[in-house]
Please model this.
Amino acid sequence: MSFCYCGKLAADRVAWTDANAGRRFKNCVDGSSGCRYFQWVDGPLCSRAQIVIPGLLRNMRGMESKYEQQIVEVQKREARKWRFRVVVVCLFWFVVYVLSGSDKQ
Ligand SMILES: [Zn+2]
Model:
């Protein structure tokens, strides 16, 4: 446990910058207090990890973005299918109504 300069229990955080991707650190829980406490928990990343991890993160974010776009496309496709089904059912009942009216004459 460590405490910041204002005496509060320091918050556990994770850096996601390219140079420190996934590296844990502690700082003040109250970001607006002006407390400048900062302490790395993990040692620095090796030069290879500083290249590989940001690349993996970019790939992961790109895949997440594509996945979200695919979800939106599937939702739009489902909405079109439902609109089409509603139109078909309405047309069916309209035809039934028209045909039943023509039988009475
Ligand atoms: Zn503090």
The first strand starts at residue 11 and ends at 14. The first helix runs from residue 47 to 103. The two ends are 91 Å apart (CA to CA). The mean pLDDT is 94.
